[in-house]
Amino acid sequence: MHRLWIVLLVALFLPAVTLAQEPPPFCGVVDSIDYPIDNLVEEYDDFAQYRARFGGNHLGIDIGFDRWGDPVHAAAKGRVTLANIEEWDTEKGVVIVEHTFPDNSTAYTLYGHMEETDDIKFPRVGQCVDHETIVGAIGWPSRGRPHLHYEIRRGLPQEGGPGYVTTNPLDEGWYHPLDFTQLWRIRLQPGFVEAATFKSVPALPPVALDSGRYAVASGDMLEIVAQPGGDILWRIETDGIITGLAGLSQDRTVIHTLNGQVFTLQNGRYSALWQVDGLDEPFVTLGETLVFVMPGGGLEAYDPAGTSLWSLPAITPDNRVSLFSASDQQIALGVRTDDGVLWRLIDAAGQVQFEATFSQQPVVAPAWDGSWVGLDGAQFKRFAGGQNHSYGNIGLVPGRAAKATVDILGNTYVYMDDADQTLLALDAEGQVRWRIRYPMPSAALPPLMDTGNGCLLYTLDLDGMLNIFDTADGDLILQIELYAGGSRTSSPRARLLNVDQSEVIHAGSGFLSLFTLDGWALGGSAVESCRLG
To answer: Which are the contacts of 93, defined by CB distance < 8 A and separation ≥ 6?
Structure first.
């Protein structure tokens, strides 16, 4: 008996022996990503939408309405960290999957309001899954129609989570599921270089600064955003909606508000403040010269310190400006008058280099040699050295939303916005090289257009579709979908498309992500034959 007590006492005071636990399985690196169900409702996007019923902003998207019992697939390969059919009580079950991405980041997809059926069961915790794996069925929560609540987030691998927060979900560790999915689809493609992400939807094209940061205007807020990650370094609330934004050297930012205030800022500090009561149009820059369009087509130019440089008087008493844009050397201004459209080219010193009146707004674009090229009705023209040079008639009149661009070889590409949705290419003398039917339907705003080395033509549509054409014959080589936001959140005037002669593409759909892509890698055989030629 004494020996038994000794053994018991020794056992009580010996350190506990811990059995070695198996490490969780590694389920691979994501090499493709998709949505958990098919047939998403077009333009529906309720991420971050405020719902008074729940007192907060939605952390995911609701999809698959009235599809009770339909299978739900994992979005990508990963490991199950939560699978509980009672996680949300009467709001049904939740499955969470952990994903490892090629940049070593981790994200978690959450599938909520799910149920099991006779044929569909939840996976077990620790199980490896991929997009072929069914993780549950669309359920019928007690407080709504059958649907799937879908989230992507940085943390909470074992918690169903709150569903709503009172702040911006992007600041709290959640991703926009649709933007995140399209972002990684592009990142996993050949030709991807880098991406920038934001936490506010821009109202104007974001501006890249010398430091690699971005200036983003959203409503009356200006944010300076660091990359990668989209962290906001500083934020300034202005006196009204921001209507113009430009970046200058040394990380200077200039903004113009609807109330007429102009600010020059550097590293969050004001260096100049003045008033310009111009039109609700973005101003343009020619080097360090800032040019604002005024009612009736007048122009006012300032330096970044707010010093007036020059001005031109109004052309008409009405606000009838039809065109206000700039190349590296000149401003193009179109003003509707009783006689037609008065069109001007003005240099950085405020000197009018060309002026003529046309029956309708000419469709023009700056060429690499400093001239402007385009269509006056069906007539192909070149404006250079203060002269109007007319060439052939293409036999087709452009619509109101027509758009043009010119490559370094002197070829002009015109989206005609006509009944046949024509996209055509013209040589330097206005002869038609090819014409095709543009792949997207007519829209309120034309596609953005640009070329790089002359081998490829790029267009960016209102819905975020980036199209790449072979300039030799107009063949559509590739389409890349950028998520452009839903019907409530899209910002098409913030679209961005720039292509340099190295075929580096900078593209943004006017939503939360910008992309840098390698056109040489995307162009395939069309690029190879062009470069060899």
So the answer is: 83, 84, 85, 86, 87, 112, 113, 114, 115, 116, 122, 136, 139
Structural element, H or E, at residue 528: helix 525-532
Residue-range domain boundaries for the chain: 50-175, 439-533
Gap between the Cα atoms of 505 and 515, Å rounded: 8
pLDDT digits over 174-232, tens only?
999 999 999 999 999 999 999 999 999 999 999 999 999 999 999 999 999 999 888 99
pTM: 0.92
Q: Domain 50-175 carries which CATH code? A: 2.70.70.10
Instruction: Tell the residue number behind the tokens 């430009």, with chain if given.
Output: 246
CB neighbour class for 449 (10 Å; exposed up to 12, middle 13-18, buried from 19) = buried
* Residue pointed to by tokens 């069309």: 526
Which residues share a beta bridge with 98? 79, 108
Q: What angle do CA 57, 62, 66 make, to 5 degrees?
A: 145
Residue 44 to residues 40, 118, 463, 489, 492: CA-CA distances in angstroms?
A: 8, 31, 13, 10, 16
Number of H helices and E strands in the chain, helices first, is 4, 44
